Structure formats: C-alpha cells, structure tokens
C-alpha cells in the first residue's frame, strides 16, 4: 500500500494546496528566501570547518 515514494498525482496535489494557501506571488519569494538561507548556512558551516582547520593543536605540557 505505502511504497515510500510520492506519485506525480500526490506532488500535484501538494503543489495545488501550496498555491491555494500562499498564493502564486508568494511562492517564488519564499523559494528565493529559502535559497538565500541555504547559501548562508552553507557558507557559515564551511567557515566553521575552515576555522577548525586553522586552529593550532595544543602543545603537550611537560610532565614534572
């Protein structure tokens, strides 16, 4: 009964509901905003990885 994937009919129904709820003008604006947010998140995550790579390793303390 449930195959785990949505059929094209299901996708059309989802798109129709989104258009009815948000309107045709709001959907492209929302998609642009989502894309910008994804790009910002990606750049911030890569920046964190670069910061971790640049961080020097702590020097071991000599034992007394």
Describe the structure.
The termini are far apart. With 64 residues, the chain is an all-alpha fold. It has helices at 8-22, 26-54. 69% of the residues lie in helices and 0% in strands.
What descriptive keywords fit this protein?
mainly alpha; 64 residues; 0% strand; elongated; 2 helices
Number of helical stretches of at least 4 residues: 2
Number of strand segments: 0
Task: Flag low-confidence runs.
Answer: none
Main beta sheet strand tally, sense and closure: none
Provide the succession of SSEs: HH
Q: Measured on Cα atoms, how large is the radius of gyration?
A: 23 Å
DSSP helix fraction: 55-70%
Tertiary shape: elongated
**DSSP strand content:** under 5%
Mean pLDDT, nearest integer?
Answer: 83
Distance between the termini: 70 Å
What structural class results from the helix and strand content?
Answer: mainly alpha
Record the SSE blueprint.
Layout: H1 8-22, H2 26-54
Q: What's this, in brief?
A:
The chain has 64 residues and is mostly helical.
